[in-house]
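My current task is to audit a protein record that another person submitted. My question to you is simply how this chain folds and whether the tokens agree. This is what I was given:
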Amino acid sequence: MWFGLLIVGAIALLTLLTAPTQNASRSGSTYSRGPDGYGAWYSFMSERGTPIQRWQQPFEQLAQNPFSPGKTTLLQINSGLKEPVLADRQKTWVETGNTLVILGARTPVTDATFRTLQTSPAGDVQVDTRRRHYLTKQETTSLKLGDRFGAVVWQQSLGQGQVIWATTPYLAANAYQDHRVNYEFLARLVTESKQPIWVDEYLHGYRNPSNATATTPEKRSRSLLAYLVNTALLPGFIQVAVLLLLGIWAHNRRFGQPISVTAPAVDNSKAYIEALAGVLHKAESSEFVIDTIRKEEQLQVQRALGLGNQLLDSETLLIAWTQQTGRPAAELADMLQLRSRGQKVSDRDLLIWLEKIQTVRHHLPRY
């Protein structure tokens, strides 16, 4: 029993741990049609007539982008909140005159209302976050969107370039399709520098086919592992492996130690009596059974009273019973007088008669 419960528990635990989940890296992707995706904003930009392209290579290769040899604006939409700190390669790239727009900067939570309408040149932008960035007096001119609690969107100058931060990664997500001001506001942010616009899809796992091709055994191994992780095959493999290990450990005995089957002991006397009782019951020979038991009980009484093994007349037996036991003669007479007289004895009468037999036995001197 415990072995079966262990297997069920292990399967349930593995199922919970390895259940397929939504890939968080797709959040913020322009390929995504979910509420946290940016597919609607990407279509809005196309309808607006603003050229925009998807970048699907590592950031380091952006400087050698053959399709955009000049200055570039890169929009990065984080899948979650990240510290508003640039890596060295990003600083260097911005300082050369490029623009980097990053949505999803981790800033402190303030007392601001969660949902607010922020005034902007594009209109009232709906913002659903209580996070704000504190600007110093010298930085107040860089405010793009914010209130008395701090900045929601702000701009930072680095060398010849600019970095624009937003505290929410959902500034123009699909969830805001009914609030187009958000889309227009983000569109103005990325078009202010009048540079070619690219959206970083490499962050969300999208790769150009040339970069995605695995050429080394290590890459092939990682690709196979990634494939298994993203499918339901991995949990199945793990469960099968656990079952095999448990089976080996338990020597392939599912329910504990084997129990040998022992042959039941045969009681010939009991079997004979039961068979005979079955035959008499079917033949409705209750009178024969009663007479046989009554005679045997009378012999038992005679032996106990020292009167031998030959059946005596009732009067002699009753006198001996009264003299040796001091009990009334009617007590024994009731036991000896049960007769069916051609009628079937009822179950109630039969039970009463058996009780009388037990009473007689109880008062016998040597029984």
Notes: The longest helix spans residues 286-305.
